[in-house]
Design brief:
The complex is a heterodimer of chains A (143) and B (160).
Chain A: E1 4-12, H1 16-29, H2 36-57, E2 64-72, E3 75-82, H3 90-94, H4 110-117, E4 120-126, E5 130-138
Antiparallel strand pairs in A: 1-2, 2-3, 3-5, 4-5
Chain B: H1 2-37, E1 49-56, E2 59-68, H2 70-86, E3 91-102, H3 104-119, E4 124-127, H4 131-139, E5 147-149, H5 152-159
Parallel strand pairs in B: 2-3, 3-4, 4-5
Antiparallel strand pairs in B: 1-2
Helix pairs in contact in B: 2-3
């Protein structure tokens, strides 16, 4: 049997919506019946990406964040987009413990967490145009 | 005649002193109660995180329940720093038994508290760490600077 489904949500870049975004994605993928560990991995990765959009993309000003989630058989793909200021240096941003905002007491582990908890991650970013993060994870529980 | 004069002088003074005491006590209570009633933070409406504290042998024990993300971490930071200043403690011990979710914002919170504690020559400890939280903490290499314990008793014993 083939599983296939897609959803998309948009919300304003408020920190309150970080929780909403990860719970919405978790609720959507729950129809695949993943393990608790898989759900919490995906929730954590989504939370990191949305937090980045709020803090770095829009720098706490207001803008829209789009999250889309789809799955085909046992592979989940999540895209988190913002129309914010973009990432200056992607390879530097991916370095563990690097943060462009040290004054905020951030750990600089966002991308490391996404890379560890998901199987694949692609970052597209254009300065002053926005950032899109595409993440994929194969749910082993469905194999 | 003289007694009357004294009465007139003293009675309003006592009244003023009582008034001051009353105002002072009301302000004092407000300072503590705002924590309790959550008057100090409009973001706490529909909050997804709570902290409770206790003090044991020079350590501040903070039990964090609910979700730790960028949104809630600011409140956690403010509250912990206030408690840390208010009580003259050396160490901070986190009880993570009630945590349902934590992302890398939690790492930032612990790192920041570690700096404060270090200034007083203390240490940071955690116990009751769930597997999901443990993975995030391990990833960051945080266990190089903080200690993980199996129980509160073990933490208190080794931090003394």
């Amino acid at each position: 049997m083939e599983y296939q489904n897609t959803m998309k949500i948009s919300f304003i870049s408020k920190s309150q919506n970080e929780g909403f975004a990860r719970v919405a994605v978790a609720a959507f993928i729950s129809q695949l019946d993943p393990t608790l560990e898989e759900i919490s991995d995906i929730k954590t990765a989504v939370s990191e990406a949305v937090t980045n959009a709020v803090i770095h993309g829009y720098e706490n000003s207001e803008g829209m964040i789009n999250v889309s989630c789809s799955f085909f058989n046992n592979t989940v793909e999540i895209v988190i987009e913002d129309k914010g200021k973009g990432i200056e240096d992607i390879s530097k941003a991916r370095e563990p413990l690097y943060t462009s905002k040290p004054e905020l007491e951030r750990s600089g582990m966002g991308f490391t967490v996404m890379e560890t908890f998901m199987d694949e991650i692609e970052i597209e970013s254009v300065r002053e145009k926005g950032t899109a993060i595409r993440m994929r994870k194969k749910l082993k529980s469905l194999e | 005649m003289e007694i009357r004069k004294i009465k007139i002088k003293i009675i309003p003074r006592i009244g003023i002193i009582f008034l001051f005491l009353k105002v002072y006590s009301i302000l004092w209570r407000m300072y503590y109660i705002e924590d309790f009633l959550c008057l100090n933070d409009e973001n706490e409406r529909g909050k997804t995180m709570t902290i409770t504290y206790s003090i044991k042998k020079g350590s501040l024990i903070a039990k964090i329940s609910g979700e730790v993300d960028h949104h809630t971490s600011e409140t956690i930071r403010d509250k912990l720093d206030r408690e840390f200043i208010k009580h003259n403690v050396k160490n901070i011990v986190f009880d993570f038994s009630g945590i349902q979710f934590m992302d890398s914002s939690g790492i930032g919170v612990i790192m920041g508290r570690y700096k404060n504690v270090k200034e007083r020559g203390g240490q940071v400890g955690v116990y009751n760490v769930a597997p999901q939280v443990d993975r995030v903490l391990q990833l960051s290499g945080l266990y190089k600077i903080i200690n993980q314990y199996h129980s509160l008793d073990e933490a208190i014993l080794s931090l003394q």
